[in-house]
Design brief:
This protein is α+β, with helices and mostly antiparallel strands. The chain has 2 domains: 294 residues, Aminopeptidase; 151 residues, Alpha-Beta Plaits (2-Layer Sandwich), CATH 3.30.70. It contains 16 helices and 17 strands. α2 runs antiparallel to α6 and α11 packs across α12. The N and C termini lie far apart (56 Å). Bound molecules: zinc ion. Zinc ion binds next to loops.
Length: 495
């Protein structure tokens, strides 16, 4: 008995030893800027004015093609606004208008051996719900400057990024930067409704012209302030993968009739139980490759005892996944999610409906597919009376490894402009226009270099969307450094 006990303690000690060894020998994956000082930009009042003007042009996009063609004049004015505001850009770069209201700018590099890079930012915005108008502190399309912020729809999503890129380009051109690598700037007009007449047509143009990008940067994740669990510093989250999407429509057709003598089970009963069964059987928790890299990049900066857990992620996988699954955003990070978003049933209170339907929207983790979702839902419902139809869908993206020159380039640029910020790859929960370029690059990064806390993130597609002016200046500075670093940073000079 004594021997067994001794053996047990010896094993326990060995295990603790291994855990501590892994923790104490962890190396930081963060980069320290050479000069150690942030590259800041004084408040540039013309840049502020430009973003205000951009917000004032209502470029709401619609999935309805008629409404979208009615909105054409707004997009025309927006493109005119860009041309008149950024004359140096339009006289120095080659511009192509694609499908009437999308822009592709080409800044030709001197070295054709370097793969071109592309920076993408959409010009359309989501509408503002009528019933929320009174909750806006400043008009949604006013572009008002107040409290050190520019207010309005699109300041964060995604005109803030587009205008920052244009400002950075102008500054680089004025400073005489001559690119060796060709850099494209693209802006689509319907990201918010799927990108079919915008990004998809730009991508098609690139395909026809045999373009392949060594680096593709789009909107997506941000410099999160106080968002990453246990980490106090701001974290630049770079989306190296994006979840897939599928909507399943469940329909049940059964005889209806008078509500005074109902059947034991109506079409609506069958539908409700199908929906509940799907809800009650969530997908398994999983760490996608980008989430595993996220853990590696942040482990060193985790406080104890979380550091021990992150340093031994294989052993504590279950614990890490369960901890994340406790919050809504964390849950979406570690599993394929499904949520009922639409239900159609019934006309009148004394009539039993015959045809009822529900839509469930799924967001799919990399490593799973739309087919996996359909199979699982069919198996879970297991009722022939429920017809399952597949609607809008796209598969999860490929994952771009953090061990790519493009990631190191973003990391280096971040270290220069934001020396206080940690950088980590991460999984993007929403969707971006980058999906239309999936076959045109092996290196997609979804990152808008702006500091945002939880409250600010909540204003995107919501109420009181606004950008803090000092942070907006940092964003411009980031793109300016990026344009310059893109010229010197090649796969051979990773570090
Ligand atoms: Zn957006």
């Amino acid at each position: 008995m004594k021997k067994i006990l001794l053996l047990f303690f010896a094993l326990l000690l060995a295990m603790v030893g291994v855990l501590m060894f892994n923790t104490l020998t962890l190396k930081s994956k963060q980069l320290i800027a050479e000069n150690g000082k942030p590259l800041t930009l004084a408040i540039d009042s013309s840049a502020v004015q430009h973003l205000r003007s951009a917000v004032q042009i209502n470029t709401v996009s619609y999935s309805d093609s008629l409404k979208m063609s009615e909105a054409k004049p707004h997009f025309d004015s927006f493109i005119d606004f860009l041309k008149t505001t950024y004359p140096l850009v339009f006289s120095s770069l080659e511009d192509t208008i694609i499908n009437g209201r999308n822009i592709l700018l080409k800044w030709k590099g001197s070295n054709p051996a370097l793969q071109p890079a592309i920076l993408y930012a959409h010009m359309d915005v989501v509408p503002v719900e009528q019933n929320t108008l009174t909750q806006w502190k400043h008009p949604a399309f006013g572009g008002v400057v107040a409290d050190n912020c520019i207010w309005g729809r699109g300041t964060l999503d995604d005109k803030g990024s587009l205008i920052s890129i244009m400002e950075a380009l102008t500054r680089s051109l004025s400073n005489g930067l001559k690119p060796s690598r060709t850099v494209f700037i693209a802006s689509g007009s319907d990201e918010e409704v799927g990108g079919k007449t915008g990004a998809a047509t730009i991508a098609q143009y690139c395909r026809i012209n045999n373009l392949h990008f060594g680096f593709y940067l789009d909107e997506g994740m941000v410099i999160a302030q106080g968002v990453v669990l246990k980490i106090k510093k701001d974290v630049a989250l770079i989306g190296t993968a994006e979840k897939g999407y599928v909507t399943l429509e469940l329909t049940v057709n059964l005889p209806g009739g008078h509500s005074s003598k109902p059947q034991r089970e109506t079409a609506l009963d069958v539908l409700l139980s199908a929906v509940k069964n799907v809800h009650d059987r969530p997908f398994e928790k999983m760490a996608a490759p980008s989430t595993q890299e996220f853990i590696d990049y942040l482990a060193y900066d985790m406080p104890m005892p979380a550091k021990v857990v992150f340093a031994n992620k294989r052993l504590f996988k279950g614990m890490i996944l369960s901890t994340y699954a406790k919050t809504d955003a964390g849950n979406a990070l570690v599993r394929t999610t499904g949520v009922t978003t639409v239900m159609n049933a019934g006309l009148q209170d004394n009539v039993i409906p015959t045809k009822v339907s529900a839509k469930i929207n799924f967001r799919i983790l990399p490593g799973q597919s739309t087919a996996d979702v359909v199979n699982r839902v069919t198996e879970t419902i297991n009722d022939k009376r429920v017809q399952i139809l597949t609607g809008e869908r796209f598969e999860p993206s490929k994952t771009t490894s953090a061990d790519t020159w493009g990631f190191k380039l973003l990391q280096k640029t971040s270290a220069e402009v934001f020396p206080d910020v940690l950088v980590a790859p991460s999984l993007m929960l929403g969707s971006t226009d980058s999906k239309h370029f999936a076959d045109l690059t092996d290196a997609t990064y979804r990152f808008f270099p702006i500091r945002l806390d939880n409250e600010a993130i909540g204003t995107i597609h919501g109420i009181n969307e606004r950008i803090k002016i000092p942070y907006f200046m940092e964003t411009i500075r980031f793109y300016e450094s990026l344009l310059s670093n893109l010229q010197t940073f090649t796969p051979e000079s990773k570090k």
